[in-house]
Amino acid sequence: MKITIDEKIYDIDIEDTNTPLLWVLRDNLNLTGTKFGCGVGQCGACTVLVDGEAIRACSTAISSLENKKITTIETTEDKTVQKLQKFWIQEDVVQCGYCQSGQIMNAAGLLKANPKPSDSEILSSMNGNICRCGTYNKIKTAIKAARAEV
Ligand code: FES
Ligand code: FES
Question: Is 2 exposed, middle or buried (0-12, 13-18, 19+ CB in 10 A)?
Answer without folding.
Answer: exposed
